Amino acid sequence: MFFNRNVSAGQTPKSEFQEWLETFQFGHFITIEPTPSCPMKDDDMKQRLREIDHKINKRFVGNRYSKFKNRKDRFWMIGFFENGHKGRLTRHLHLLTHFPYDQIKINGSKKFRRNMVQNYVQHIWSNTPYFTYLNDVRAVCPMHIEDIPTKEDSDAVSWYSSKELPKDMKNADYFFFDNH
């Protein structure tokens, strides 16, 4: 499900939104970089990520994840598009992911569980064919995943990811997956 990113009359300013982001401990910082040799449309990236969101929750949290009332009890992600820099022709995407490590049905240390989830995300992204609208199969653009080990790192990465949001959040270019 997409949350409406266009807030109504009482819009949340960027600073309040960034403070809200700080209330979460994000597990991974993911960058998806379409390149001229591996282009990918924004909607195609979102659809692939929606599928990943569902598969991760189903595998690691369980089939009833969509019934959980507390969002912190399930995997979810928030993404921010960023325009290309000099020499980069396409936009890229920053994702912050929240993992409910206490809910994951795998034994082992927190680091082991983080690596299992990270490897699964990378596997799904890389091994799912990318079909264009004309049914041509194309290479999947690169995905880079970094672990966020501490709350301080999580706060810094959330501010970095949301840096290009407009101050009034009008026409903000972000999305939020939460399959409730």
SSE topology sketch:
Blueprint: H1 14-21, E1 28-32, H2 42-61, E2 76-82, E3 92-98, H3 110-127, E4 130-131, E5 137-138, E6 143-147, H4 151-161, E7 174-177
Antiparallel strand pairs: 1-3, 1-6, 2-3, 2-7, 4-5
How would you describe what is shown here?
By secondary structure, the chain is α+β, with helices and mostly antiparallel strands. It has one domain (about 25-65, about 70-175): Replication Protein E1, Chain: A (3-Layer(aba) Sandwich), CATH 3.40.1310. Helices cover about 30% and strands about 20% of the residues. It contains four helices and seven strands, in the order H-E-H-E-E-H-E-E-E-H-E. It has helices spanning about 15-20, 40-60, 110-125, 150-160, and strands at about 30, 75-80, 90-100, 130, 135-140, 145, 175. Strands 6-1-3-2-7 form a five-stranded antiparallel beta sheet, with helices on both faces. The chain has a two-stranded antiparallel sheet with strand order 4-5. A hairpin with a 5-residue loop joins strand 4 (about 130) and strand 5. Helix 2 (about 40-60) packs across helix 3 (about 110-125). The longest helix is centred in the N-terminal third of the chain and has 20 residues, at about 40-60. It is globular and about 40 Å long. It starts with 13 loop residues before the first helix and ends with a strand. The relative contact order is 0.28.
